[in-house]
Amino acid sequence: MSYSWLDEESTISLDRRANQKTPFYEPIVNTFKEGGYNPNVSYHYNPDVSKYHYGVRHPMKPFRLMLTDHLVIAYKLYEQMDLYQPRRATKEELLEFHSEDYIKFLESVTPDNAKKYAEHLRQFNIGDDCPVFDGMYEYSQIYAGASLDASRKLIAGMSDIAINWSGGLHHAKKHEPSGFCYVNDIVLSILNLLRVHPRVLYIDIDLHHGDGVQEAFYLTDRVMTVSFHKYDGEFFPGTGNHDEVGLGKGKHFALNVPLHDGIDDESYISLFKSIMEPVITNFRPTAIVQQCGADSLGCDRLGSFNLNIRAHGECVKFVKSFGIPMLVLGGGGYTPRNVSRLWCYETSVMTNVKLNSRLPEVLPFRNFFQPDYSLHPNLGDRYDNKNSKKYLENLRNQLLENLRYLRGAPSVEMQEIPPDLQNMTTDEEQEILDRLNRESEYDAHLDEKRYWLNTKDQARVSEQVE
């Protein structure tokens, strides 16, 4: 796919925010930090995010985030992390990337008034994949706010690794939603990191190409995007072939790893490590954003790979081993019981905790994990592996050849850290939260039409999970 149409209105990479002066960070040491590396990990979760509902037949189920949190609590992983309940992103924060008319539309449209916005629904690509549902704008604010909160903790040095499983919605564009994603929390977080970090590496191991993030940074050399995904020219979103490498200053700072159906654990891990080590040692990022889409697991409702949970987690562990500040996000994943298993396991990888494969006996909604009640069910035998050794070897060689053209890590002019990023004071954060509450009576009243879930709603929950 050609990106020759990109300009300042369609990508942020030409904007001053991606090219501004940045405080100096020491380059990383090109060695692993396995063994003794015990990072300070923060966990960013607003429980309200799991209460929204795209629709009965829609594959995206925010309830998976509640399941994940229940597992994290049941395994007592919270004892190893700093816990934060982040506020919603403000409209002004969303406008750092998204266009004002699009955000205004998200803020205004509801299922009840959608007919009045018929023209806008067409303009903004609203449809089956991205429907209008109750609380759509608030939902987007919540998951984006959690990613921004996590990025602030990294910037302030309060966290070495910051986790937001509700984030990672990588398809949303500047002017429209796409692929179940309304607001691109990843782009917003990277923009925030760029205010302090000279170079940010984005890694995507979702089943689908991380097109929204790649498009946003396609013209800059300060963000390198690497995406491992299914590609056949037709599979959504239709982008992500190995010849998409960036343009202008960004040429060779986009790397795509197109894969076929059925790739297995051994093949995926081998390819991932052989590509990511030279990427990291050559680009020398000072921060990494890792998208951990769970639809690349075997047996996913929309998936076609054969990855098991440990293999997916091994990739995240490998990135962690470099000891670089790391924002860890969720993404796709449409079999909620396996999504929650994966993200709980990867939380344990981040915190260096070994988990029992048998799920805890005291666990809400434990019946969803029957019949084996295991953290590691076998997910790897569903599809034939259509990635031949020859194909993978040729692909690896092509990608390594592309990396040869990667210029030395770009340097950025030094400046002091912007004062508003040296960790917002408690009073400032409370002032923003109070304003949000006043605008929507966020904590005082609940919208009667919103699809709220609780432990008494197990019948509706079962319908979602299956």
From TrEMBL:
Domain Histone deacetylase: residue ranges: 58-349
Pfam families: Hist_deacetyl (PF00850)
Enzyme Commission (EC) number: 3.5.1.98
Leader sequence residues: none
One GO molecular-function entry: metal ion binding
Cellular component terms per the entry's GO annotation: Rpd3L-Expanded complex; Set3 complex
Annotated positions binding substrate: D129, G179, Y334
Catalyzed reactions per annotation: N(6)-acetyl-L-lysyl-[histone] + H2O = L-lysyl-[histone] + acetate
Positions that bind a divalent metal cation: D206, H208, D295
Keywords: Chromatin regulator, Hydrolase, Metal-binding, Nucleus, Transcription, Transcription regulation
GO biological process annotation, one example: epigenetic regulation of gene expression
Record's protein name: Histone deacetylase
Organism per entry: Ogataea haglerorum
Lineage: Eukaryota, Fungi, Dikarya, Ascomycota, Saccharomycotina
